[in-house]
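Researcher: Re-running this chain for the archive, since the previous output was lost when a drive failed. Same request as before.
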Amino acid sequence: MAMQESSAVPAVDPAAVRDYGQLVAALYAADSHFARRAVQAVNVSLTLRNWYFGMYIAEFELHGIDRAAYGDRLLESLAAALTARGVTNASHRQLYAYRGVYRAYPGLVEAKSLGRLAQPQGQLEPTGATGAILLTASAKLAEPAKDLLTALSYSHFELLATLPSDAHRRFYEVETIAGQWSVRDLRRQVSSLLHERTALSTNKPALAAQTAADVGKEPMLALRDPYVFEFLGIKPIEVMSESHLEQALCDKLQALLLELGRGFCFEARQKRILIGGEHFFVDLVFYHRILKCHVLVELKADEFKHEYIGQLNTYVSWYRKHEMHDGDQPPIGLLLCTRKNHVLVEYALAGMDNQLFVSRYQVSLPRKEELQALVEQVLSEQAMSAIESTEAP
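Model: Regenerated structure tokens:
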């Protein structure tokens, strides 16, 4: 019962469904088929939206009659105007990225399709130089434009647009599609200079095999992209849970800290922060009214690893620079790990050397014993749940 990805309906003949097992298989096939089509449709729409943003901005910079009045302030002014109208994903940095994607992929949308977009009165017409570019640029793409548009998410394009040459982009386009790389996989391979290593390698098949083994299992067009969240009006908390265990820990820890009554004020869950063009999520964020500081909590359903401290310290440093206000103390990081040693809790004091504050910190935060009991409780509940699910008929 193979499915045809391009078909409007899954290729399962209703006449072939004759028993319960075949019915379950047919329903599962239909669900998988249309789920993939939905994800693809959302990603294509988001890419088109951002590409058009980039096109209009780039064309205005070239031909706008009042472009000189804005000059270098154009993107900043646009970001303010669009945000005031409720447009999401329209910050100065994002508009800059959209323009970069358009410049790197001017042929991503065929010239004939430009007229299909409704043109508000006074909107810049996509004609002239743009039409000429679009008619010639598609031939330069290693993959047909329509294939790239449906195979890659916008975040793929944004990352590819930052590469130094067309040759780099074409190489990573082909590898990403062939290897079904997620954006995280693509970023990892770019950072490790796969293009350059491939050119220098004397055993390219071995390098390709090693690269394939290093690639994760995350779907290439997953709906976990932060751009997609805002595009669809979805809050990250609704879809960002990494595992049932971490979700359970998050639920219980949030309740524990609030019930302790030691000054914790809940602020955010799966708090998204942007660092150097990359999105990161802090599991839990509280503000402590007694300590006068933010408390950032990271949960790891794993044994302690040194890189977890580095990750948490990055978040704490970001908060110290961007979220501290007059009267605030430096933020605190709380890392909660499990497995092997059951629990390992580390507090990152982030350079706080005021002894009085440290003392207040020690008595105001929960004791390690309380957190250890919490983790062991959640682990026990998860284990019992797994046993019950396997014994259920």
